What we know:
The protein is 61% helix and 4% strand. By secondary structure, the chain is mainly alpha-helical. It has a domain at 217-338. Helix 1 packs antiparallel against helix 2 (27-40) and helix 7 (113-127) packs antiparallel against helix 8.
Amino acid sequence: xxxxxxxxxxxxxxxxxxxxxxxxxxREPLLLRAAAHxxxxxxxxxxxxxxxxxxxGDPADPHLIRALKASNLWEYGHEAEARxxxxxxxxxxxxxxxxxxxxxETLESHDELEAAEATLTEAAAHLLVPGAELPHAMxxxxxxxxxxxxxxxxxxxxxxxxxxxxxxxxxxxxELHDPKxxxxxxxxxxxxxxxxxxxxxxxxxxxxxxxxxxxxxxxLHWPEAELTELLTAYPELETExxxxxxxxxxxxxxxxxxxxxxxxxxxxxxxxxxxxEAFAASESSSPANAALLPQYATTxxxxxxxxxxxxxxxxxxxxxxxxxxxxxxxxxQEESQAGR
Length: 340
């Protein structure tokens, strides 16, 4: 159950901090999650302390941490410092969409719509590559830019059109982002109210999907050498993994089935025998116990070890074949099924 009170968020943050001490290799993602819980508990100075702690070292994603810190600072009266951080991020031009979007949403939430739009437009100009497949973070940034420009009553440009085309919801972005929608909430016309309820449900659906799972639903991927070692040590698991080729095919098929059933936030976690044996020991169980495998996958995903699925068709396939995903396991579904 997700925490929904300040005390529960504080407790969850403390648990994550203890976990970070046990797993120093996962310290950065765990501290970021702890900081988010402290913000929800309204302990914003505590969250800032965690961001500063991360930035004092050599973080993997300093731009993201600084964007989150700026957002947090502005919420408890440190506007000047937050603005300075956002200005610095814009000058440094991060290569990822997330810091840009967080900075822009911080400006938007404080009625700085023109600055938010300028930030998002700079990001789009910097990050968009004509003809390239866009990652989810970039699609999200374009949708945010569409919303801000709609609120400013700006005419659609090519990037707004692209955001419309990439939007997968049943209600068009122009409707979702229509500023006049707020007026309908005060209407006494049942038809208008029902239409607004439908729009709000469409928005809440995506938010609930994002919030309901703090980490991906992930499946295990055993590289060939690791699977050979696993089955040599624990032959009882051969019923789970008859061959390495079948294992790879089952990964893709399982993820496609989950996606077809409406699951979102899917991922793949790379398994190793030493890590699995350590996990089994922590559960006071034998690695030969097949029931541990999904628990092990969930634990790795919770420690930010999951790679999002599906990858872009032009990037390397998750199976380590060296081929692009679109020409490997990302090919036609019937081809994947034929190989089973």
